[in-house]
Task: structure prediction
Amino acid sequence: MQRKLPLALLIIMGILGFAQLFSPHPRWQDTHDILRNDMLRIIGAFALILGLGNLLRAHVMKIQRRAQNWPYSIVTLVGFLMAATIGLFGDGPRRVGMFRTEINGFKFDDMTIYFQIIVPLGATMFALLAFFMASAAYRSFRAKGFLAVLLLLSAFVVMLGQVPVGAAISRHFPDIADFIMRVPNTASKRGIEMGIILGMIATMLKIMAGIERSWMGGGE
Amino acid sequence: MNISTDPWVWVGVFLTLSIFSFLWKENGFYRFGEHLFVGVSNGWSLAFMWNNVIKPVLIDRVHMTFKTAGSEGLSWKLFDPYQDTNFLLILWGIIGCLYFTRFIPKVSWLVRIPIGIFMGYYTGLSVPAYFQGSILPQMGATVLTRNSFASTGTAAVAVLVLIGVLCTLSYFFFSKEHKGFLKGTSYIGIIFIMVGFGASFGFTVMARMSLAIGRFTFLLRDWLGLVQ
Result:
């Protein structure tokens, strides 16, 4: 029961989802609209809440155990509660909440939080990667053989082809970079992507057939 | 120099410099920014999910259903899933709530029900969708057609892409030992792959560089007012 019922539901829902494309009947398509737009969205939203609950639990436990760097968990919790409270209960660009999110022209609604806190932090995090990628490449890329030279050359040309200094060195740089992106890059990515997608489809079919059951976890 | 007086700009500057401080070494400012990012972005996601999915798709519609039942009385129409407001929406909410049984050891197996329903329907939907949306268009773009030979340039590109895709696929074909003809094609395949990896690396570095330029522009223009 504890394993068979979820598996049976998965197989039935899998067949239902698979069969969606096989009939254009309006009632059949309406049924799938309900499953896609209501069922998937609602169940998926609860999954996100569960994930957030787990995150909070992990940080609360870290504070309780006074684990290493535990004061930073307070920062995470305070940030979480602040953003969630403003987003859930405060005024927003298109809604009236329980409290105002503007005091004497100073706004702190959810969109302001997004653009003034999340965007700078996210963009800087990713910008930081530019330095680490460059330093990692400097330490590990070695022109040891023909293939390594090819990798280095194409990276070099693509980088130079996208900045004005590349065009200043030679007007052919942007064209060569464009050719590399359009032909060898497309061809190799297409081959790899087709392999990945076929692998994904094979795994999905295994899940639907009940062969792959790791999603149920261990135990009864 | 025209330093900004906007408090939000100062917050952005503090957070930007905190994250960049990692270039020196891992320190408290970086950890503060990192943990704040995790907390705020997840809190924001919760509010976003509530305001854009749970409230409009579930709460508001169920509320409307109860209101209709209160004013017009119970009818079969309120149990018709094809109606915008119906009691069956509660079922999806209850199934979603089963995720939380994970915290109750005695009934924790019930968490498999929402996972099974979600995964089953999503995988069933995705198999034909991936074929239609990815595999077939990719194959269609690779094969040679009359249009591929419209000019010498397009013909050369089309032939090279076709050779590249086939050779890349042959490199990942492990059912036969790479000897003879397959050895040659897989070697051409690895040439395409290495050039592709190099190009992807270069492209990614430049994308990250563009973000870094964006952050420096923020510091020099929006905060210090040094550049226009």
